[in-house]
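In line with agreed milestones, the collection of sequences with tokenised folds has grown. One record among many is set out beneath this paragraph:
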Amino acid sequence: MEEEKAAPQSHVQEVPNDAPRPSFGAKLKAHFRKWWWLHLIFFIASTLIIVLCLIYVAFPRISQDGVNDSTLEIQSLTLSNPTPTSFHLEQDALLTNHNKYHPRLDAFNASLSVGGGAGEDKPYAYVQLPAVHATETATTHVDQDVQITDMDAFVDYNTQLLTKESVDLVVNGRTKLHEMRFPVTTVDYHKTITMKGLNGLAGFDITSFSIKLLPDPDGANMVGTVYIPNPSVLTITMGNVTFNNYVDGDFIGTSTLSDLVLRPGNNTLPLRSTVNQTLVIGMVTDTYKDGMLPVDIVGNSSVFEGQHLEYFEKALQSNRQHIVLDVGAALAALTGGGGGSGGSG
């Protein structure tokens, strides 16, 4: 029997693994030593994205919000040199900025329209608003000729201005905003400004008048003084303004305010009238025996330098005043039997 061959002996010797495993911190340091450039690129890209978002997304929104939060108050408004299709506008306004930023706004073309309903979509005119530095408070001044772009809208504006206690003026436009070193941004300018109106000429009164037996060369046979309060900041040149006068619906004559310029505050103006004296005396004799004649006064025409101003005429025609005239006292004064005479609203 063959002897079994001896099995080869292995010379591999097992070595115990006693080396310590690297810590998380050491791995992290090794990672950054190897990939530092990749993290740097990521950091720069992230910072750039954030900065660009602030500049091109957040800043325009902040700018628009600041414009939206600001207020505009008209302190004086003068409408002069009116023509059938244009007028001269001089206006002072106060801009109040409630934002901590004080940007500069470029000059821009703005539309003017009446607030409420479909009127906002129908500008009656466009004006060039000046550049302004929007500090906490800033004033703006407009002085320019203005073309009427929508006659119906301008008639509506003047009618509301004459008949209502207040009227909303809507200003719309778009301009550039500058703030420090930020990129120039475009903002929409939309403001609704509530202005005091003429409130239907409430308080209108003929404070004194006298009757003439022989008319003046212009046909006037009654002259007096009219009181018109103006609670607004408006100064309006209306030219020669005529009114139709009625008693119980019967036409008795016309009255004229020549070269009328209605200014803020109390206006006391000369009034000249041409009336049917025979008809009036008959009314006093038969119906109003106390001499107190109820008269309705309705606007008729507005003429400046020989041209009719439709936008004023239609507004005047929409407004009616009611006063009581002491015709009895005026007749007594005519015959030497009394003092002055006047009316009551």
